[in-house]
Amino acid sequence: MRTGVSLVALLLLATPAAAEWQVKPFAALTFGAGTTFVDFEKAAPRPHRMIGVTGVLIGEVFGLDVDLGHASGFFHRRGQTLLLDSGVTTLTGDLIVAMPHRMTEYTLRPYLVVGGGMMRVRIDGVIGAVRVATTRPAIDVGGGVTGFLTKRVGLSWEVRRFTSLGDNLLQGASFGGEQLSFWRADMAVAIRY
Prior knowledge:
It is a single chain. By secondary structure, this protein is mainly beta. The protein has one domain: Porin, CATH 2.40.160.20. The chain contains 1 helix and 8 strands, in the order αββββββββ. An 8-stranded antiparallel β-barrel has the order 1-2-3-4-5-6-7-8.
C-alpha cells in the first residue's frame, strides 16, 4: 500500500503543469466473463451494456485515471424470471502510459492502463434464496486510443480486462471463492480541459 501511495505521489510530482484534464463519459459492452458466483440464468458470459465515466489527468507520457462503470442485469437473461435484479459496478484508479503527446498531436494517441480498485456484485433471487451483495478488490488492465476532433472534444475507444480478487473460501452463492472477471469494450466522448 505504501509503495502504491509513494508511486502515485512521485507520478503527480513528475507530471508537468501543462498536463491536461479529460472527462470521458462512455457506453460499453462486456464480453468473455467468467465467474464462480451462482449464475442460474447462464447470463454472465453474454454481452451486457455498461455505462460510466472516466476522469483523466495526463501529461506528456504518464498520467492517472479514475474509472467508474455500471452494468445492470449482469446475471439476467431476457425471458428468464429466476432473479429480481443483478448488477456489477467497478471503480478503479489507474496509471496511464501514453505515446508522447508531441508525436500524436494531430492523430490518434494510443495508451495503456493498469491499476486496481473495487468491484461490487449484486444478485437478488426471486425467493430470496440467492442474495449476493459483495464488494471485492479488483485489478484492471487495458489500452485504447484517443483522438480529438476539436481543441476540446474528441472520441476514445478502449478495451479493459477487470478481475476481482478474493479468498478461496467456499461462499453461499458461489462455487469456490467469490470471483468475477470480464472484458469491457467502450467508446467515449473525450472532453479536454
